[in-house]
Amino acid sequence: MLRGGYGYHNAMPQKVAVLNVVGLSGSLLEHAPRIRVLGEQATLTPVLPAVTCSVQSSMLTGRPVRAHGVVGNGWFNYEQQEIQFWKQSNKLVGGEKVWETAKQRDPSATCLNSFWWYNMYSSVDYSITPRPQYKADGRKIPDCYTHPASLRDELQVRLGQFPLFKFWGPMAGIESTRWIAEATKHSVAKFDPTLTLVYLPHLDYGLQKLGPGHADIPQHVKDIDDVAGDLIDFFHQRDTKVIVVSEYGIEPATGHIDINRRLREQGFYAGRSEPNLLQWLDLVALGTVCDVVPLRGLNRAFVAQGLKVISARTSVGLASLAEAAGAAGPATAYHVG
User: Fold this and answer.
1) What are phi and psi of 69, to 5 degrees?
2) Taking Cα atoms as reference points, which of 151, 129, 126, 124 lies closest to residue 142?
3) What mean pLDDT comes out for the span 307-332?
4) pLDDT for position 9
5) pTM of the prediction?
6) Contact 120, 110 (CB under 8 A)
7) pLDDT at 325 (0 to 100)
8) 159 near 195, Cβ under 8 Å?
9) Rounded CA gap, 73 and 56, in Å?
10) What is the 3-state secondary structure (H, E, C) of 151-164?
């Protein structure tokens, strides 16, 4: 976490902007001079699980996972008996949010949330968040949700359609982060909020696709540093204190834990059947390819075996998808992607 800005005013609450540069860690700051110029640094230890929804909810409520209830990016809904991912209602987050606390202390305080998660039906004053349209024919149309609703039209006239398919997935890139930054600047100039929350996801893409040691990562850091630096300048011109945070860092793995072997050694499976993990390799292959994970080492082996499981058509769901797509014969990474 890096902080920089100006002192507090006596007449009105100090304006603050929190830039969430996802994936940024201390080891990457040497490639981010514009962020580094903020100066003062502190270390944040993320909650577990260290994933977007859980960490953001803890940051914004000051509560651990067991208290705010966001146990991951998705969880099993007992009422509907299904796993639900990436839900968007702020009502799912238990506890008082930071902007609610600020408003209790000073009723004039306002908040703009630009793309931090759980940003629909929220008590923030202004919000911008991705919200695609799902058509009856199965199409997914890029769009966004805003409060007030009129802000959506303003942003799309000014900046064009939100580049949803550059926000996550195989084509993810700097374009979505730039759109978010420009939408934030427009909204701040329009509403002049006391607290601004900005989510800048670009660095996360490269780290997850390539790994932290890849030769292209410094350029990814430079790209996000340019966008963040422009925002820092913008906020400083508006007498706004800037804080840069990251939900988590991605560092090289130095070891592994054989979970089932440990459980076996501790007698967990005594008197019960051990899970057949090989039967789930079809889902492992599907997730690995669709998340554009490099097919190297164990990942390649997992996908190779998973494609064999998919080809056996033992999963009713995946077999039905293959039939609907006209994908006859052995499955390949092309079919899965």
Assistant:
1) 85, -5
2) 129
3) 86
4) 44
5) 0.83
6) no
7) 81
8) no
9) 11
10) HHHHHHHHHCCCCH
pLDDT tens column, 98-145: 999 999 999 999 999 999 999 999 999 999 999 999 999 889 999 999
Q: Distance (Å, rounded) from C-alpha 203 to C-alpha 113?
A: 20
Concatenating the DSSP letter of every residue in 59-113 gives: HHH---HHHH---SSEEEETTTTEEEES--BGGGS-S--HHHHHHHH-TT--EEE
Tokens 């860690």 sit on residue: 25
Q: Can you give the pLDDT at residue 256? A: 81
What is the C-alpha to C-alpha distance for residues 27 and 267, in angstroms, rounded to an integer?
A: 40
* 38 token code pair: 């903020």
Residue written as token pair 């580049």: 163
The candidate with the shortest Cα–Cα distance to 199, out of 159, 168, 169, is 168
Residue type (1 letter), 201: P
Give residue-wise pLDDT tens across range 170-203. Answer: 788 999 999 999 999 999 999 999 999 999 999 9
Q: What is the mean pLDDT of the chain?
A: 91
First to last CA, the chain: 36
pLDDT of 3: 58
Give the DSSP letter of residue 31: G
